[in-house]
Amino acid sequence: MLDITLQYFPIDFDVAFLRIKQQYMVFIHYKIAFYVHVCFSVFSLFAGFTQFSKRIRTQFTKIHKTMGWIYISSILLFAAPSGLIIGYYANGGFWSQLAFCLLAIGWFWFTLKALLSLKQKNYKKHQIYMVRSFALTLSAITLRLWKYLIVLVLQPRPMDVYQIVAWLGWTVNLMVAEIIIIKYILKR
């Protein structure tokens, strides 16, 4: 994901994914939202990986708290709102746009609920919402994995792939998150 992010720097509006988004490059809000989303999504992805280490949570609580604040603030203040903006302009028409906008809203909501649960000192609820939030954070990776797998196996048209992975990239993650919550968190 870092390699994917770095291809956009130095700032270039005619590289990689942005090549197929040229009709939106006239909109300053799209350009800003895209770069904000790309940068802060990477922060949330890296910070999120640290949050599920029992060792870090119990032995290095300061690291857990610091990385948690980086994770939560990068999503709530930057990555999810900018994701909603670029989701509105998603390739593949209405259904892809709906998928990406719902992803951004869900990402914001689960992360906010995790923060509010933490403030209430309800750590089990906090953990449940963090699992859901991170499942949506991981959609950046799973979307690409689904894309490669579908193209490799089915070889559909590019826009058909985009419409499919717009949904698969995060809905399957949420299903797995719910299984993890039921099997490992609620049973404790």
Q: Which keywords apply here?
A:
single chain; mainly alpha; 0% strand; 188 residues
Describe this structure in words.
By secondary structure, the protein is mostly helical. The chain has one domain (2-185). Helix content is 78%, strand content 0%. The chain is built from eight helices and no strands. It has helices at 2-6, 28-50, 54-59, 61-88, 94-119, 123-137, 139-154, 158-185. Helix 7 crosses helix 8 (158-185). It is globular. The model has no long low-confidence stretch (mean pLDDT 94).
Strand fraction = under 5%
Number of helices: 8
Number of domains: 1
Radius of gyration: 17 Å
Q: Please state the overall shape, judged from the principal axes of the Cα atoms.
A: globular
Estimated structural class: mainly alpha
Order of helices and strands: HHHHHHHH
Fraction of residues in helix: over 70%
Major β-sheet annotation: none
Rounded mean pLDDT is 94
> What are the segments in which pLDDT stays under 50 over at least 5 consecutive residues?
none
